[in-house]
Write a structure and sequence with these properties.
Layout lengths: L11 E2 L2 E2 L3 H7 L6 E6 L5 E6 L20 H4 L9
Antiparallel strand pairs: 1-2, 3-4
Protein name: SpoVT-AbrB domain-containing protein
Pfam families: MazE_antitoxin
GO molecular function, one term: DNA binding
Length: 83
């Protein structure tokens, strides 16, 4: 990649800068995503896009146990050992 290539430009307003639409589309940047900034030794900036995971249970794989469960009777006792 050539260091003199310009993909897009934007202006800074206060402490904020807009990400040009073309860059947002190309990198699939959406509301809630995070940008991680890294200042390089040569004065250039590297930006990493951290995609937001969607949904409350995005990493939840579900119940993989052997026995059947009945949510109406087991909900409040889930994970409680009855002796």
């Amino acid at each position: 990649m050539s260091s003199d290539r310009i993909d897009a430009e934007s202006k800074v307003s206060g402490n904020q800068a807009n990400i040009p639409a073309r860059i947002r589309r190309e990198l699939d940047i959406d509301d809630g995503d995070q940008l991680r900034w890294q200042l390089e030794d040569d004065g250039s900036i590297r930006v990493h896009v951290i995609q937001q995971q969607t949904g409350t249970f995005a990493d939840f794989d579900g119940y993989a146990g052997e026995e059947d469960t009945d949510v109406t009777s087991d909900h409040d006792a889930w994970g409680v050992d009855i002796e």
